[in-house]
Amino acid sequence: MDNDRIWILLGKRLSGNISSAELLELDALLKNDPEAAASADVAAAIWQTPLEEITAPCGSKERIWNTVRPQLPPSRYSAPLRRLLATAAAAAVFAATWAGWQLFRPAAPALQQISASPGSKSRVSLPDGSIVWLNSNTQLHYDKNGFGNRHRNVTLAGEAFFDIAKSEGVPFIIHAGQVNIRVLGTAFNVKAYASDSTVATTLVRGKIAVSFRNKTVVLRPEEKLTVPLVTRPDRLRSQHLEKDSSGQPAEISWLQHKLIFDNNTFAELADKMSRWYGITFRFKSASLQQLRFSGIIDRESPAEALKMLQLSRHFSFRIDGNDVYISD
């Protein structure tokens, strides 16, 4: 049943008709089944395959199609989606053997994963010469086969700053949940944590195209685009970046080891500090979560940062390992 569900959700994601809740469900299913995680790469390849080349057992094909069809509006009954679901049934039948996978994928992807653990940051160089800084609790992965020559596709979960090397004819594409970002050579920040309800892209230099569902916005230097994942906006609007006293946008302050917050609730700040330090906040009451703070955390320890916050608002705290208890 889970295998059918994975293919159904992959079909909806590729057709652009997957909801935020379904996307989280798909991520969970793929994480719980490492072998099925390869399905995403297979599905992407199949999406480009001519319809007439694909065959599948009729019973399985119709069963999966009849399951997903009621979930889609009439305009989504596309041949590519029908084609993917048909192939999904064939893949489900033959997935138990390596030869079955080979019907759809001549060579398995050589996935490379780079990560920054909670409370840390990492700087990495990609095979094409691009530089990526990963913020706390961030994962970046890509297929090493042909990276830099045939493709430059990466998948991001978390926050990262990209300084992309130019490569004529091979665009750099970032997949951040439901948002895709296409660029030829530029520097920009992407914030796409799984727990966030938005994906935020901040452009420092160059030009990038940010796509969400059937909408695309081209960003120019010192512009920011925040894409809401839960609602369906009529249009996407970019914003001009505001800079701090040092002349840097707040969105990339983490590169200078600064955590900037402006009139954030304690709950919002706790979420930022949790990623920053790799700790977990536990509030005694909901009213404490509504306290608001503005300021900058530089290289202070968690205890030092909380003592600084106590100068403007009354609360008590206790640190026990990686847990921080906030009380009146």
TrEMBL record:
Coiled coil: none annotated. GO terms for molecular function: sigma factor antagonist activity. InterPro entries: FecR, FecR_C, Ferrdict_sens_TM. It comes from the Bacteria. Residues 113-208 form the FecR protein domain. Residues 258-326 form the Protein FecR C-terminal domain. Pfam families: FecR, FecR_C. This is Ferric-dicitrate binding protein FerR, regulates iron transport through sigma-19. It comes from Chitinophaga eiseniae. The lineage of its organism: Bacteria, Pseudomonadati, Bacteroidota, Chitinophagia, Chitinophagales.
